[in-house]
Each structure stands twice: as structure tokens, then as C-alpha cells.
Amino acid sequence: MSRLILLNKPFxxxxxxxxxxxxxxxxxxxxxxxxxxxxxxxxxKDSEGLLLLTDDGRLQxxxxxxxxxxxxTYLVQVEGEAGDEALDRLAKxxxxxxxxxxxARARRIDPPPVWDRDPPVRFRKSVPDSWIALEITEGRNRQxxxxxxxxxxxxxxxxxxxxxxxxxxGIAPGEWRELVV
Length: 181
Prior knowledge:
With 181 residues, the chain is of the alpha+beta class. It contains 3 helices and 11 strands. It has helices spanning 57-64, 84-92, 143-150; strands at residues 3-9, 38-39, 48-54, 72-79, 95-96, 99-100, 105-109, 129-136, 155-163, 166-167, 176-180. It is globular.
């Protein structure tokens, strides 16, 4: 039996157990006191939401390795109105400096019922924002942020909601749930 921990990683926390600047950077060690588990993939310090941790190397590889094409769904608050043209470009794949992304599933959504963020996202009366759900099957460095920027919609807030069959739904920021798989 393998352990699998579904963690709702808060904004500002590093996706690692060690290496944070003491007193300056928070790490997973402050949230999860379970020996022998490691992150299956990463989530930027500025991003929040689902991070999976496991003690099973094969499961970790199946989750994190792009060759397995495990779908990851992000709820993304962007600056500007997410129009059909931008969504179509995201769906077809976007040219980034490190090459074309795989096609994604992209759709406009109503503001989702997510938790408040600390610190809150900046608000500008003169610049509209909107939300999209973006499902990708790869995980390049800061990929979602780079994709939305490439189509003229800079990311304001990024919440990973789902990885494969697992979701952060019902798990508060900084909290976690353990499954046996």
C-alpha cells in the first residue's frame, strides 16, 4: 500500500521540505509532518492548490512525468477579458521560448468558490479580470503563467484544482487529507 497525501498548498509556501530561507520562506515541513513522503511534481511559491505527496516512487513518476500525460486542471484569474480568440489559442497550444505546448482544454468560468488569498490579489478598477479553467497534460516551469501571458492574459492568481482523479475540493489551505492507494 502506498501513501498519498492531498495537500492544499497555500500561496507563498515552497514545494519542498527543506531549503527555505529561515524566517523568510515557508516550506512543506511546516504543514506536513509525515516521514518518507515527497512531492509528486511542483507548484510555484506564488501558486496555490493541490500538491500530491507520496512515499511511492513509481506513483510519484506516474503523477509528475510528462510522458504519462496526467491531466492537471488549474483555475486561473487573469487580467483582462478571456475572449474566444485567447481561449482558442490556449486550446491549440501556445508557442513559448522552450517550444510549443501541447493542446489544452480552456474555458471561461464564473469566479470559482475558492478561499480568500493572503495577501489578496491586487484589484484595479480600470482593468477587468476574468477566470478560466485550464487543463494541461505537461508541466513545464511556470507553464500556465507563461501560456496565459502569451495570449495577452497575465495571470493574477493560479489555483491547481485537480491532478488526474484527485481534487483539492473540500480541503482548506494548509490542510491535507491522506489516502491509501
